[in-house]
Amino acid sequence: MSLVGKLVAECVGIVRASGLPNETNAMFTNVEGEWDEVMHVIRQCVDHVARAAPRVSVVVKIDLRPGVSRALHSKVESVEQRLSSMLPAHGPDLGSPGIREVQLETGERGGGQKSQTTPYRAGPSHRQG
Considering the entire predicted model, what is its pTM? Predict the structure, then answer.
């Protein structure tokens, strides 16, 4: 594991230990809570990285909505509900203009990758034989 990867994992541990609602994805860790609580956790992470690295880069995006709680998961649930009511049971219409094929890749980056290109057409089956 690289130093950066190690420090990121340790910071995610700091966030999780805070007890604040949080979620980590491939690019960011989202934290939900009161202003001072969230800023305290960010400061802990910055201080932790600063002890091990000569430079710390922090990206913070704030969605300030007084009186709203549990937005971290309710936003995603809302999108999922809308998607389930919009999409047909067989998936999105991939035959729309500009979408001619979907490429799926499996395996690890840098080696052993396999890709499969699947053509699609409009209509009930979408998949061309």
Answer: 0.60
